[in-house]
Specification:
There is one protein chain. By secondary structure, the protein is α/β, with parallel strands linked by helices. 59% of the residues lie in helices and 12% in strands. α2 crosses α3 and α6 crosses α7. It starts with a strand and ends with a helix. Bound molecules: BIS(adenosine)-5'-pentaphosphate and magnesium ion.
Length: 192
């Protein structure tokens, strides 16, 4: 089973993907995590990507599609796409990559959090917790970068909701619930 977790920054995609990895042995493919790894690699590309991410803007389709292609070519199934696709060209590319592997998408789960202030508070809290634990917070976990991330989501990524709705694949969960409630709703969709 291959699924997409779709939703605004801070909606809980990474949190729920991690739970699915633990509960079901699925494979999480987070382009955000992959790009943050590229940053620590110290390459010129990694540095450029880090600057784009810190502002809350999207990295080019070419780069993220290349990262996903590499992971898919390594084989496997039961993928959770977390933070990918984020644009219509990325969605088309994912269809093609999966078709080439003889696989398809089974569900697209929208994590709905229709309160921006909750999303901002979640990531600002995460940054504060990181600092308290002596770790470096994500450069984009600030109120300012979050405004930009949200704007980019509504402008460039939310059209994917219509795209997958038209394909009859879109399902939704209430992302404002507790982590356990959200996990239970997702399990209900996957087990249906
Ligand atoms: P990415 O890493 O994907 O970040 P994001 O989606 O913007 O934001 P988050 O990871 O914060 O949100 P999440 O939904 O995973 O929530 P989480 O579980 O962490 O992308 C970062 C950047 O990389 C992008 O801005 C872009 O520059 C680049 N990028 C990545 N993919 C790209 C692509 N495909 N194309 C182009 N560029 C790309 O939870 C957030 C916080 O809330 C946590 O502290 C968590 O503990 C808490 N929380 C979670 N669930 C709940 C709950 N139910 N109740 C209370 N708190 C909760
Ligand atoms: Mg995430």
């Amino acid at each position: 089973m291959n699924i997409i977790l779709l939703g605004p920054p801070g909606a809980g995609k990474g949190t729920q993907a991690q739970r699915l990895v633990e509960a079901r042995g699925m494979t999480q493919l987070s382009t955000g995590d992959m790009l943050r790894e590229a940053k620590t690699s110290g390459t010129e590309m990694g540095q450029k990507v880090a600057e784009v991410m810190a502002k809350g803007h999207l990295v080019t389709d070419e780069i993220v599609i290349g990262l996903i292609r590499e992971k898919l070519e390594a084989g496997g199934n039961g993928f959770i796409f977390d933070g990918f696709p984020r644009t219509l060209p990325q969605a088309d590319a994912l269809n093609e990559l999966l078709a080439d592997m003889g696989q398809s998408l089974d569900a697209v789960i929208e994590m709905r959090v229709d309160k921006d202030e909750v999303l901002v508070q979640r990531v600002v809290n995460r940054a504060a917790e990181a600092v308290a634990a002596g770790k470096e917070p994500r450069a984009d976990d600030t109120a300012e970068a979050m405004q930009e991330r949200l704007f980019v989501y509504y402008k460039q990524t939310s059209p994917l909701l219509g795209y997958y709705y038209a394909k009859g694949m879109l399902q939704g969960v209430e992302g404002l619930g507790t982590m356990d409630e959200v996990a239970a709703e997702i399990a209900g969709i996957l087990d249906a």
